[in-house]
Amino acid sequence: MTKYSSEFKVKLVREWATDGLISYQLAKKYHLSHYYIQYWIEQARLQGITSLQHRRVKRTFSADFKLSVINYY
Q: How far apart are CA 47 and CA 49, in angstroms?
């Protein structure tokens, strides 16, 4: 589980882009480290705003696959 939701990250980055606030101001406003905000801004700049969204999906494997891995090992 992530510490901050993807919606919160997107909100902060959009607020930075539209209101022109710097990361220190946003950090003070939301009571968190400005390093998080700088990282999220840089990530959104380089990879797009959708890169901030959590996309992890739990993978499932069949019993046959698990047995084949055990046999391979």
A: 7
Burial class (CB within 10 angstroms; exposed 0-12, middle 13-18, buried 19+) of 33: exposed
Q: One-letter amino acid identity for 22?
A: I
Considering the chain, what percentage of its residues have pLDDT values greater than 90?
38
SS3 12: helix
Q: What is the mean pLDDT of the chain?
A: 87
Q: How many CB atoms lie within 10 A of CB 72?
A: 6
First to last CA, the chain: 31
pLDDT at 67 over 90: yes
Cβ contact 12:30 at 8 Å: yes
Give me the count of residues in the chain.
73
Q: How far apart, in whole angstroms, are the C-alpha atoms of residue 35 and residue 22?
A: 11
